[in-house]
Amino acid sequence: MLIKVVVGMLVVVALFLAFIATRKGEFRYEVSEVIAAPPEKIFPYISDLKLGGEWSPFEKVDPNMKKEFIGEPNQVGSKMTFAGNKDAGAGSIEIIRIIPNELVQLRLLMTEPLAADNIVEYRLTPEGQGTRFSWSMSGNGGYVGKLVTFFIDCEKMVTDQFRQGFENLKAIVEVK
């Protein structure tokens, strides 16, 4: 009897893991909002990794995060490495493409708590008296990502953080 229960549980676990393997691994999370400021006022805050610390919700997770800046600010190749607490994690973010006052594309490499290789994009589009700021992150979570997203709504978690970033950035650029 005990063997049947154990075998049954192993079959259920195997079926669950097989189901997880069939889930989509690629993801793209995006939020867009209008900010009452021109693109040229917003752009320095999204293209300079040091200024990003003034509004990024991710850096506020650990105020004691260790950061190192490499390269020229506002340039392709500019990079920030970081190591924070268990909530902030560790990794690097590097500018891989810039179109002044329009686009900043970054490569986010996480080493802790889980390894990840994602693309983050900030896009500015003039709209009315302001600027539409679109913030996205895309990548492939692999098997572990598939498993995590089965239990946790990562899209909501990430987009909520993006929205907090919008509020932080608005507080800076809409006032100055």
UniProtKB/TrEMBL annotation:
<protein>
    <recommendedName>
        <fullName>Polyketide cyclase</fullName>
    </recommendedName>
</protein>
<keyword id="KW-0472">Membrane</keyword>
<feature type="transmembrane region" description="Helical">
    <location>
        <begin position="6"/>
        <end position="22"/>
    </location>
</feature>
<dbReference type="Pfam" id="PF10604">
    <property type="entry name" value="Polyketide_cyc2"/>
</dbReference>
<keyword id="KW-1133">Transmembrane helix</keyword>
<dbReference type="InterPro" id="IPR023393">
    <property type="entry name" value="START-like_dom_sf"/>
</dbReference>
<keyword id="KW-0812">Transmembrane</keyword>
<dbReference type="InterPro" id="IPR019587">
    <property type="entry name" value="Polyketide_cyclase/dehydratase"/>
</dbReference>
